[in-house]
Structure formats: C-alpha cells, structure tokens
C-alpha cells in the first residue's frame, strides 16, 4: 500500500510507526473484526490520517483518554503524531483490548490500555479529570457527552470525530450536552491544509458538573 506524501508532514518522526500500524491493520484488521474489507484501500486517508490530524486541537503535554478505541482510532495515530501526550485507550471488548495491547507493544508506544466502558464508575474514578477525551464513531452526541464529559477536568475538552451529520447532531443534542455539563458544541475541521477531505470534529468543553437529570 502506497503511503501518502502528506503522512510525513502529519507524523514527522512517527512516520515509521504509522507505516507499521497501517501494515498491522492491513494484515489483521479484517480477520479480527476491527475494520471492514472495503476499508483496506482507504486505510490511510479515511482512518489513519483522518485520526492523526486532530492533534492540532490537542494542547501540548495533555492527558488524553480515547473512548471506545476499537482498532486504536484515533488514539494510536494521535500517539504516533504527538509523543508528548499521555494517552489511555479505553475499550470494553476483550479481543479488541488484546489487539490494542499487541499494537502498543509492537510500536513501543508509551500508551496505556484499559478494558472497560467510559460510563462505568470504576473507569471514571480511575481515569477522570483528564485534559482531553476523544471518540470516533462511538455513539450519538448526546450519549457520548454523558459518557465522556465526566472524565474531563473542568475546562477540559471532548473531541468527537463525526461525519457529514455533525451539524445536525449538534442542533439535535445541544440541550443534552448542556445537561451533561458541556458547553455549546462547536463544529470544526482538522487537517484542512493537508487532507482532501478534512476531519470533522465536534468540540465540547466541560464547564460544570453533570446535572442530576442527565443520563
């Protein structure tokens, strides 16, 4: 698989790791149920680069929790692009946790892997008060806010990678996000100068504690 030229700009010194990650996903992703067979040919543009460019929204030396990490997206590309970050991958499915642990070891990444769900009290207690929470293709915005915002310190941000429906979700779920303790969601694009199709991200700041009425 050809590596896009822009990957060197996105990953810098982490490019070799990104190429190895792409190789591992290509070799094992479909058979282990991590990606669909049609995704192999667009692995770089649709998944790896799409995930890595959110680095421009993450403060330096931040603590980051990637919720529902699955195949490691966006957490592993983000870790490869930004070695200054302290990243924890949270995933409930045992077989995916096993995959993530194998990849972290193979790539020699300083990344933690935790099995569990963001909404579990034990996970919140263990990981809470971080700077940034990321999530990609995990759940609708209202549910995602209820899961992710409690993991953030006040002033921390949730970065939800979304598709074309992002603005519709924001309009529909803004009230639920507020009940979960979030700011008014904003829609932004990452990688506009690098990618043919920039990554759409919904950004929510944690501004207060969750309302008792929030689910």
Automatic annotation (TrEMBL):
S-adenosyl-L-methionine binds at residues 68, 73, 118-119, 136. CDD domains: AdoMet_MTases. It is found in: Cytoplasm. InterPro entries: rRNA_ssu_MeTfrase_G (IPR003682), SAM-dependent_MTases_sf (IPR029063). Its main location: cytoplasm. It comes from the Bacteria. Its EC number is 2.1.1.-. Keywords: Cytoplasm, Methyltransferase, rRNA processing, S-adenosyl-L-methionine, Transferase. It holds the Pfam family GidB. Specifically methylates the N7 position of a guanine in 16S rRNA. HAMAP family: 16SrRNA_methyltr_G. Belongs to the methyltransferase superfamily. RNA methyltransferase RsmG family. This is Ribosomal RNA small subunit methyltransferase G. It comes from Amycolatopsis acididurans.
């Amino acid at each position: 698989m050809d590596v896009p030229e822009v990957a060197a700009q996105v990953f810098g010194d982490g490019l070799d790791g990104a190429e190895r990650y792409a190789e591992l996903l290509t070799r094992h992703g479909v058979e282990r149920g991590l990606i669909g067979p049609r995704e192999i040919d667009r692995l770089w543009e649709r998944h790896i680069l799409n995930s890595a460019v959110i680095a421009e929204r993450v403060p330096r030396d931040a603590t980051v929790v990637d919720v529902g990490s699955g195949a490691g997206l966006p957490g592993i590309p983000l870790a490869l692009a930004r070695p200054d970050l302290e990243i924890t991958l949270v995933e409930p499915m045992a077989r995916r946790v096993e995959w993530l642990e194998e990849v972290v070891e193979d790539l020699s990444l300083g990344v933690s892997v935790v099995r569990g769900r963001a909404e579990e009290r034990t996970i919140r207690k263990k990981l809470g008060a971080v700077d940034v929470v990321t999530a990609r293709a995990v759940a609708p915005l209202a549910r995602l806010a209820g899961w992710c915002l409690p993991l953030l310190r006040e002033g921390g941000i949730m970065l939800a990678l979304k598709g074309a429906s992002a603005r519709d979700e924001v309009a529909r779920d803004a009230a639920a996000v507020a009940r979960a303790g979030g700011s008014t969601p904003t829609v932004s694009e990452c990688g506009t100068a690098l990618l043919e199709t920039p990554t759409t991200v919904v950004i929510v700041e944690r501004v207060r504690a969750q309302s008792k009425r929030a689910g």
